[in-house]
Amino acid sequence: MARKKRPELTFQQHVADYLVREHKYGVLEQSDITDTAHYIAEDQLWAFLKATQSDTLQKLEDDYGTDAREEVFKALRKELEHTPLWMLFRRGLQVRGLEFRLFYSKPRSAASAAAEKYAQNRITFRPHFYFGDTNQERIKKSTPSSS
Predict the structure, then answer these.
(1) How far apart are CA 56 and CA 48, in angstroms?
(2) What DSSP line would sit under 36-79, residue for residue?
(3) How far is residue 5 from each of residues 9, 20, 64, measured CA to CA in Å?
(4) Does 135 score more than 90 pLDDT?
(5) How far apart are CA 89 and CA 104, in angstroms?
(6) Which whole-number Å values give the CA distances from 35 to 95, 137, 142, in the listed order?
(7) Cα(128)–Cα(108) distance, integer angstroms
(8) Burial bucket for residue 65 (CB in 10 Å: 0-12, 13-18, 19+)
(9) 3 state DSSP class of 32
(10) CA-to-CA distance for 104 and 102, rounded, in angstroms?
(11) Mean pLDDT of 92-112
């Protein structure tokens, strides 16, 4: 007899399908989260920076060459030690004197110059997230103990 899927997993899949279908969110694979200490999908962020801020990124690459990418993520990890991520979304990230935006808010007009950058935002999620030293742990439903 086939086991029935647990209700919370069915609901999780329903929400994930809705986000992809209606809002065009991208789905991350576990391997996309390359910084497991801060849970950052570095390739996604790097692609966003290249698409939206290539001039600023070029300045960083002129000074740091192939180490430019590591400079960005080093600055991000350091900043996350004392600044919440939502605050970095609002005010941006300083990297070696250059400012990078991590998100573009929706412009008031579709004809605005900011509309193109807003369209480059990468909204992604991981439906079932594993964490820990070996990426094998997951959030589990607790069961009441009988004492």
Answers:
(1) 13
(2) TTTTB-HHHHHHHHHHH-HHHHHHHHHHHGGGHHHHHHHHHHHH
(3) 7, 21, 51
(4) no
(5) 8
(6) 18, 16, 28
(7) 35
(8) exposed
(9) helix
(10) 7
(11) 90
Cβ contact 121:26 at 8 Å: no
- Give the Cα separation of 49 and 54 in Å (integer): 7
Instruction: Tell whether pTM > 0.85.
Output: no
CA 25 to chain centre: 11
Residue 147: what pLDDT? 46
CA atoms within 13 A on the CB side of 90: 5
Q: Given this model, what pLDDT does residue 57 score?
A: 96
Residue 134 has pLDDT above 80, yes or no: no
Mean local confidence (pLDDT), 118-132? 75
Q: Specify whether the CB–CB gap between 123 and 25 falls below 8 A.
A: yes
